[in-house]
Amino acid sequence: IGEVQCDERPERAEPLSDAEREIIQDSWGHVYKNCEDVGVSVLIRFFVNFPSAKQYFSQFQDMEDPEEMERSSQLRHHARRVMNAINTVVENLHDPEKVSSVLALVGKAHAIKHQVEPIYFKILSGVMLEVLSEDFPEFFTAEVQMVWAKLFGAVYWHVTGAYTEVGWLQVSSSAV
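Structure tokens predicted for superoxide dismutase (176 residues):
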């Protein structure tokens, strides 16, 4: 009888060092000055490359044209919310409890209210890293991207923890 291997959830998210926290905060400072535009760019690339993610948004789920998406008030609003949530995490990296509670709220809202597959968080963070490294190449070097990948890993860990808590099954194997 073959044993089924499932992704073991690690005990905790790998904590950032002080130096890594500083790298995140410094690089984010440049991004956040243009937070709405960057957020919109990230979401448009996300929805163009992963159109199944649009199903959760009534206003632009049928839009194909990126320029039309860009004019959507619902998309711009969500872009602001995403960027503000990341900003809250970045500003509170010194306070793991605060980060944990913010991400638990985000996770629960997406699980219960919006019924969003958790894998989209992982996909979105990949898209975000891509856009940041293209738009801010001088601040998002390979080293900086590695630290951000570590942070996004922790974000995903917290968010999926909230999904598990509310009874969402199969967090790791959700297919898009």
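Residues 142-165 form the longest helix (24 residues).
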